[in-house]
Amino acid sequence: MGGGSPSVVNTIEYITIGSTGNSTDFGDLSDTGKYVASTSSSTRGIFAGVASSPDSQNIIEYVTISSTGDSSDFGDLTSARYECSGASNSTRGTFNGGRAPGRVNIIDYITIASTGDAADFGDLSMGVNASMGVISNGHGGLS
After folding, report:
1. Structural domain spans, the chain
2. C-beta atoms surrounding 23 within 10 Å
3. What's the pTM value of the predicted model, to 2 decimals?
4. Domain 9-142 grouped into CATH 3.65.10.10
């Protein structure tokens, strides 16, 4: 979703993992943006931390994975930033680090099944941006 080369776009595309082939149009983001972080459950795809020239945004948007269509408003991050990373289990998603414009150590969390603003989860030990890898086993996440 989104992207920034050669120009910033608002497109969302999908692939069918069970077969090879090109991506297909899914829908559109509410605005153009790049450096989007994502997290998901088996039902919803959620993304946040959009950078659109010249500023970062605090928006969180979601799509229902089983049906194509434009994104909908989910809520807001605790602060505007971009280049954050996402992790999740089937219930909760986190958005970690980012730039605002300098690197930040923020960890926000959301409850995936219900819309609403993110809440403060805690802090990373230092400010990092999207070059950080994030993994989750469904019980915890590693940054």
Report:
1. 9-142
2. 11
3. 0.85
4. no
